[in-house]
Amino acid sequence: MRAALITVLCAATAAQAEHMFQGRDPASGAALYAEHCASCHGAELEGQPGWRSPGPDGVPPAPPHDESGHTWHHATPLLLDYTLKGGQAALEARGVTGFVSGMPGFEGVLTEAQALDILAFIRSTWSRRAREVQRLRTHGEP
Fold it and tell me: What sequence ranges are listed for the domain Cytochrome c (predicted)?
């Protein structure tokens, strides 16, 4: 009985881990990404050259969203806040100050559902390993 309960709990945890992406539409996310994100982050998710260092204005260029970047290193709620509120506000809400971000907020332009569709699209391009790492960042160990 105990083994059955553990199996059910583990399965529930795995299902819960993906709850923010359940029912999301990566195809719609791809179209929204092309419209709202690709001009800075690249049509192929490649980001801007030199994204690891601030530009002359002190603002880092837009990072890639493919696996060469660090998007998959962050929890989904942070990525959602970054998208909707903008980089500066998302980080300051978490106590990070002194970081200059060029990422504008898209609240009022995109709904939360649309932002999640975009994140689902981006996530769909990652390897299984990157998706699992990002899931663990979001939900912790099962």
Answer: 24-126
